[in-house]
Predict the 3D structure of the following.
Amino acid sequence: MKQKPFLKSWPLWLMLLTLAGCGTTPPRTGTTTSPSTASSASPAALPNWNSQALGDTLQGLQQSCRSLQKKPSWSGVCREAGTLPASDADAVRRFFENRFTAWKLQDGGRDSGLITGYYEPLLNGSRTRSERTPWPVYGVPRDLVSVDVPMSQRNRGTLRAKQAGPNRLTLAANGNIEINPADFAADPRGIRLKGRLSGSRLVPYFTRGQINQGSIAGSAPVIAWVEDPVELFFLQVQGSGRIQLDDGSFLHVGFADQNGYPYQSIGKWLVDKGEMTLSDASMQGIKDWLARNPQRRDELLSVNQSYIFFKPLSGDDGGPVGALGVPLTGGYSIAVDPRYIPLGAPIYLATTWPHSTEPLVRLVHAQDTGSAIKGALRADLFWGYGTEAGMYAGRMKQQGSMWLLLPKGLTPTSAL
């Protein structure tokens, strides 16, 4: 992909417990819905406003302005934001107070909603295979083939297709390749089938279990080799991450393609099997279970037949790119529902730390979207990358309130 937006399709805890999509897709399009707002006020009236270290959030706004500055209602605000030093917290505070109006968000009669988290994993690895790093991070296999089959044609029996490119087929009545859609796993998220050619037939691509047994060793490039297959699994869940190589440098990798199977939750499988309770089925809980049951690792991971292929991303120090098209800032970027909240807007978030009643209040930025992020009071907080970020993201299922900050003169309805 031209770097497709890093889209957190589902919050991490939900991905572990339910059927979910992963990888990257463009932000949804369609009818927008005006956010329900209770009232407007100066940012200075927001709870705990004066205790905020607003210099820490300035970088997030400056990133958003790479996209927003093209809009007349944002251009002046963005020019001024670009001149502010983050070290001058008072100047940043005055800027937000003078330039923005805060709108309290509601959803029906509610003024709080679910706040979850996501992150980028950090793995240890190498460019070469060794006893320490035996697990491959695969690029897109050369024999992976895709074809779009509309849902209206899924039940018509055998279809015919012809080659449309190195890895693409197109349906054609006179085509020389046979496709039986019933052979492929049902995936309600889209119409694209993924497979491989076996003679004159398109057959389903290899599953995770088959890939882990070496079925694509001769047909897929290896981007890197990593130490831990469990961490590699969670890299695939998140769709983007970093690998620290043995020379100390970092390799940033992102979603490139997928093998065509819908995501299956290993957390839900463990709960259904009575191996753990629903409250324990976090990322940390699953890792703890695997540590106690190493002989069942392959059995558990193979429950999710979906497999993600990666590609190197340019640069190694920026965050993943969100649906707004700008890098995300750890702790200060959120995924929202763009039908209610305009991408790029600052959001004043009042929630609590994961598994805690300790307040977590900060000014964040709506820079990403997600298919599980629905409604005016729903957000997914990007925690950054690495082990600590993963710990917070995997445990975050908090209630929170949000205020939408817009340049003075702009209303929530006109901003969408």
Remarks:
- Residues 78 and 94 are 15 Å apart (CA to CA).
- The radius of gyration is 23 Å.
